[in-house]
## 1
Amino acid sequence: MAEIEEFRTAQDIHDLLRHQGHSVGLATVYRNLQAMAEAGEVDVVRLPDGQASYRACGTATHAHHHHLICRSCGRTVEIAFAGVEELIDALARQHGFSDVDHSIELHGVCPDCAA
């Protein structure tokens, strides 16, 4: 995964591994991606069709972060902002929730595609 810079679906990763000569089942790819996501080693974003897409986490510390995603080319930028974390925690407490997890994906058009 470390050499994959752009987001890829589990099927794409499975196809790549098989093309490289690895004999691995698609279910195994899904299980490993899920384990890597839970460990913070890969980022997961949802494509417009709802399918999960994965890539190696670009944040060296694997710290919690969010993504800006270009609707045109798929370019993804990792972003972090403490203000939203505090807001989400406050909203959760206000409604009696605890142990809240979240993921924020902001979709727009990157500067290159907008030019």
## 2
Amino acid sequence: MRERFFLELDPAAGVDPAWPRVVIVGGGFAGLQAARRLMNRPVRVTLIDKRNFNLFQPLLYQVATGLVPEADVATPLRRLLAKAANVQVLLGEVDDLGPAGRAVVVNGRRLAYDHLILAAGSGSSYFGQEQWRPLAPPMKILEHADEIRRRVLTALEEAEQCADPERRRRLQSVLVVGGGPSGCELAGSLHELLAHSVEREFRQLRPEHNHVILVDPGERLLRAMHPDLSAAAERSLRGRGVEVMLGGRVVAIEAGAVTLTQPEAAGPPSQRRIEAATVCWTAGVRASHLGRRLADLTGCGLDRGGRVIVQPDFSVPGHPEIRVVGDLCAYSHTPDARPLPGMAGPAVQMGGWVALDLLAHLQGRPMAPFRWTDLGSMAVIGPLSAVADLRGLRVSGSLGWLLWGLAHLAFMPAAENRLTLLTRWLWAIATNQRGSLLITGRINQHMDVPVGLEQVLTPEQAEPSDATAHR
């Protein structure tokens, strides 16, 4: 006998116990959109997430650099779904899947479903070098952004009290690994943070000693964008003072230093050791472990990144009741057969279409095939400066920033967050000041103070469960 749907413990008014049960794993872009499409429809929905909020990951770098506080990029899931009596949010972790019995195990309890939507997302990958994780925090969840901000600011605080000029230079240095949108945005924002904070607020530090290094193994930044925009981004970052190192591969990370290999015009690659008090990692992505578990149980395929290879309706072979969306799925049923990118736009479209297709199936009517609308890609590279590729329309500079801002505000799930974000952006533009430069948490590993606390990330901060960072 199947366990009762959780809502049946105290049925909500207007919810029919005979309605089909839909379980959604993950409250990111894809999972939340699916739940919203199913609001107040004749289905019983359970949304499961390890966090009680939806995180707007594209703006995490602004939390990391003190531009906005946490609350501006995170919205409680219950608030977003409060008006739907047929939707329940459960705070918990999916321990296991049971496709044969149509059930998932949540917090040690078995929860049955008629339809399952897996939107557990992705985490960070260090390409087998897990020992680097505590030394170079990724940027996937709020705790990562807080840790980056704490390390940068505490390094500056120590530099203010340091008599050794060489050590001050190291403490004023930040290295970012990964030249994708997240890496470029983080590097540009870190440069602005250091420039304005050191010049205005620190008395012993010199702005010319600030050093932000952006490292990427490729031949250009933002490889998913048009080469012209990549070149524009590189010019802008270099012009603002960011050192861009292309072709650099990280071979070792230790406390306060990174060793790279760089290609040479003639001869073998050379090695370079860069000393930087803070190192940030935006280079690798790995799919949730639930993808591998689903493959083991159903025989579905995985791509090289561990993403589930899905059918045109996002189901897995032999299990039409299971849909996989967002960063966890590899969807290649496109005109050019290229997988959809792991971005907010595709994730929202996947989640919304799967929900509507599910409703159409329950009503016995056909659903138009999924057609992805490419909304383009964009990245901020400095104050009032961004690059944007909008379906062939390529812009950079202030116009790119304006389009970037409008797009991000449009995707923000809560209206109050749109208002507060816009206010903070305008304030930062007008004053060059950041209102969230707080040092919170444990004493930073760079402080020479014997406090008896851990000097690195805790396991929970360094590598959260996959369902905490999803789309």
